[in-house]
Amino acid sequence: xxxxxxxxxxxxxxxxxxxxxxxxxxxxxxxxxxxxxxxxxxxxxxxxxxxxxxxxxxxxxxxxxxxxxxxxxxxxxxxxxxxxxxxxxxxxxxxxxxxxxxxxxx
Length: 106
Hints:
The chain is mainly α. It has one domain (2-103). The chain contains 4 helices and no strands. It has helices at 2-22, 29-50, 55-76, 84-103. This is Guanidinium exporter. GO terms for molecular function: transmembrane transporter activity. It is found in: Cell membrane.
């Protein structure tokens, strides 16, 4: 259950990052509210996962999912650059997440 919670927390990190961008510096009400609700839920699920998973593993996986997810959303939804160097960097992050998951005893 900890891994499922951690995955959902990571997805919610992508949600709050996207809506933070949409909030235009917290000047738009609805995206600002979505940002804070998703942020709270993401932190709560991360805290739950950390009860069972090592700190380094949980935090690394959470930030990795958020980073790669935000990267993908930026390219697909916001039309950001998908250069080879950025793709390689994202691939390295995913590799690190996989290695961290399989190095954990939980």
